[in-house]
Amino acid sequence: MKILDFKNWKMRIRKKAVFTSWAIISLLAYSDTAFSASWSSKGNGTWGSAGAPHSAKASQSIAEASNSDPQPFSPGSHNFAVDLGQVMLVGDLSKFQNNLGAQIHYSYGVSDLFSFDSAIGYSEHSVNPLVSAPGSFLSMASLQTGVRTNLNWYDKIIPYASFGVGFYRPSMKLSSTTEISNILFGLYVGPGVDLQISDRAFFGTSLTLNSIFGSTIIAQGKAIELGGTYMNFMVHAGVSF
């Protein structure tokens, strides 16, 4: 009799274990399905009556923004500009005269705040007759890359700051037959402001300080310093797409 009771007790334990296991597996399967459904509905911006209603509006606004033309310096925008203005030499470079310079500018909007920034520039400078200079002519080519930070958006006005690194190639003409040059590393930083004229066009101005790490070259029996500091004060006009 005791053996029979033990067998019945053992059988009931097995049934309870099987039922409990089945209940746990069913609950896990239901939870996984519900979790996947909730994430799917979140991606579509419809969480149901219990979800946040703002998600649907946010998804709709993002979809509308992606379908519309990009604004200047907005996320995903490509912005090309031509810069023209004064190149002002300071420090050791002030032995040469200030002159007009030009740049081709490109920036890619990464976010509302930051953009990838790059520029190629060139200027030429004759010797300043009021001082003694080691050469008679100086040309400056530059390739810059860095970050543009949009400080704020005031209606159609966008103040910004840019900073980064650059490669500079000052070339100094010592005589009709002698010219020295070198590719040097440097930094740039400066503020600017843009005015959005239309959905695709903008106009603005910028002031940039360029600091070139110097290099000494021996030529004609003299040590000549290449490098120094100069400033760009330029206006620009560009398009976005």
Short description:
The protein has 2 helices and 9 strands. It is of the alpha+beta class. A hairpin with a 4-residue loop joins β2 and β3.
Structure characterization notes:
The protein is of the alpha+beta class and 241 residues long. The chain contains two helices and nine strands. It has helices at residues 2-43, 53-67; strands at 78-90, 99-109, 114-126, 137-150, 157-173, 179-181, 184-196, 201-219, 222-240. The protein has an eight-stranded antiparallel β-barrel with strand order 1-2-3-4-5-7-8-9. Strand 5 and strand 6 (179-181) form a beta hairpin. The longest helix is centred in the N-terminal third of the chain and has 42 residues, at 2-43. The chain is elongated and about 60 Å long. It starts with a helix and ends with a strand.
Short descriptors:
alpha+beta; 2 domains; eight-stranded antiparallel barrel; 24% helix; disordered N terminus
Order of helices and strands: HHEEEEEEEEE
Mean pLDDT: 78
Helix content: 10-25%
Count of helix runs: 2
How many extended strands? 9
Residues in β-strands, percent: over 45%
Can you tell me the residue ranges where pLDDT is under 50 for at least 5 consecutive residues?
Answer: 1-7, 27-67
Our count of domains comes out at 2
Name of the CATH first level of the largest domain: Mainly Beta
CATH topology of the largest domain: Porin
Distance between the termini: 90 Å
